[in-house]
Specification:
single chain, alpha+beta, three-stranded antiparallel β-sheet, 8 strands, 48% helix
Length: 310
């Protein structure tokens, strides 16, 4: 009787040991691929407790979480012959655990190598401006290049991003000068455009002021008000010529009375011209009675003919 009990206990312990050795726990983030006698079963084990046949089954766990794998810095020459260093990061996950465990020995290492070669290929096919500004298109092309071989391994590429682009120092200085020149050009264009618009407005204002002289007076007064706001300045105000003309026209209107309709305006009488006083003349009798004094020639001179004497 005692021998039977011992045998039963031994059998129970043996069964429990076998069951314990065949029991496996699969985590939530993993999937179990079972190899029975070296051959993979078509169905992988879901998360939870699963049992394997001792000494027959062997299970390999595959992580299905998203893996963020950095791509080492790759040095290459762009399409426009610029030497750059580019590093990136790849986000991928296992979509088919069975193929990831069978088709490739180490899918993480394989995806890393494909990412490096694809990044160097993208560098050679792109210009420097595309690497610096048009990265979204490069990300899509890089993800497509990596996803093509990875799809056969049961791996899905979620996203690929270029983290940094390292440029030579000489190229950085050249780009800095180019950017500075571009900003200077924009500043000059904006200034010239402002001067052009201001000239147009001033031309329009001058035409309006030439048609209405009163506008010039109002502008002058406004300028005087603006200048007079400063207490530390001396104001010299020019007297406008238009104002003198206005006073001249007003004086002429007040001086000349309004003529009635149909009648010419009366002419202004003019004063007679002043006559110059005449010198008094002697009477004719006195002139005739005046004695004539002969003029004698000086001594030694030739006698003067009678006709030439006064």
């Amino acid at each position: 009787m005692e021998g039977t009990v011992v045998a039963v206990v031994f059998v129970v312990l043996l069964v429990l040991t076998v069951l314990r050795s065949g029991m496996r726990v699969v985590n939530q983030v993993e999937r179990g691929v079972v190899f029975r006698m070296g051959k993979a079963l078509p169905e992988y084990r879901q998360p939870g407790v699963t049992f394997l046949i001792p000494f027959v089954d062997r299970m390999r766990k595959v992580n299905t979480q998203v893996v963020a794998m950095p791509v080492p810095t790759q040095e290459g020459i762009t399409k426009d012959n610029v030497s750059v260093k580019v590093d990136a990061v790849v986000y991928f996950r296992v979509a088919d655990p069975l193929r990831a465990a069978i088709e490739v020995q180490d899918y993480v290492f394989a995806v890393g190598q494909v990412a490096q070669s694809s990044l160097r290929s993208i560098i050679g096919k792109s210009d420097l401006d595309d690497l610096l500004s048009d990265r979204e298109r490069l990300h899509e092309g890089l993800a497509l290049m990596i996803d093509s071989p990875a799809a056969g391994w049961g791996v899905h590429i979620d996203r690929v991003e270029i983290k940094d682009v390292q440029l030579p120092e000489s190229l950085k200085r050249s780009m800095s000068r180019q950017a500075e020149a571009e900003r200077e050009r924009r500043a000059r264009v904006i200034t010239a455009d402002g001067e052009f618009q201001a000239a147009q407005q001033l031309a329009n204002a001058s035409r309006i002021m030439s048609d209405t002289p009163e506008a010039m007076q109002l502008r002058l007064l406004q300028t005087v008000v603006e200048v007079a706001a400063e207490k530390n300045s001396t104001l010299v105000m020019p007297f406008p010529v238009e104002l003198l003309r206005y006073f001249d026209k007003a004086a002429q209107q007040f001086a000349a009375p309004a003529a009635p309709a149909g009648q010419a305006a009366p002419e202004t009488p003019q004063a007679p011209a002043a006559e110059a006083p005449k010198a008094p003349q002697a009477p004719a009798a006195e002139v005739a009675a005046a004695p004539v004094t002969p003029v004698l020639p000086p001594a030694g001179a030739a006698p003067v003919p009678a006709a030439e004497q006064p």
